[in-house]
Amino acid sequence: MAEPEFTATGVRIGRGLRSLTRAGKVRISDGRLELLNSYGSEIDSAPVQAVRASKPWYASDDRASADLNGNRYQLTLGEQDPAPGRAGPPAARRFVEAVRRAAGRGT
Questions:
Q1: Predicted model pTM
Q2: Alpha carbon of 12 to those of 24, 63, 106: distances in Å?
Q3: Which among 65, 29, 20, 74 is positioned nearest to 47, based on CA atoms?
Q4: Can you list the positions of beta strands (E) in 16-93?
Q5: Rounded CA gap, 77 and 43, in Å?
Q6: Phi/psi of residue 102, nearest 5 degrees
Q7: pLDDT tens digits, one per residue of 52-90
Q8: Is 106 exposed, middle or buried (0-12, 13-18, 19+ CB in 10 A)?
């Protein structure tokens, strides 16, 4: 298995008003986006070409949404630095850019 292109842990994943997990994992690997719960079980997954990821204009910098298989998920990614001691772009923007890169849509 190839190295994941994007991984975020400690992610709150919700659908509508319902919280599915508060310590989940988002992973983009081998052309698929996977949403995992805190136990590592799959909540949902889809090829990145079929995923629509965005950052709502009204949300904070750590919030993003992802549409997979007809379901819209709200993701709270938290602020995780890409490298120790270095500030990078907000987590939601890194996620959206990683989905676009993996799908070949550019940034």
A1: 0.84
A2: 6, 9, 26
A3: 29
A4: 18-29, 32-36, 42-47, 52-54, 63-68, 71-76
A5: 16
A6: -65, -30
A7: 999 988 888 899 999 999 999 999 997 554 555 545 568
A8: exposed
* Domains detected in the chain: 6-103 (2.30.29.30)
Check residue 69 and give its pLDDT: 93
Q: Is the pLDDT of residue 91 over 50?
A: yes
Alpha-carbon distances, residue 37 vs 10, 89, 91, 94, 105 (angstroms) = 10, 25, 19, 20, 28
Q: In what order do the strands lie in the sheet with 71-76?
A: 42-47, 32-36, 18-29, 6-15, 71-76, 63-68, 52-54
Instruction: Quickly count: other Cβ atoms within 10 Å of residue 77's Cβ.
Output: 23
Nearest CA to 99 among 68, 58, 56? 68
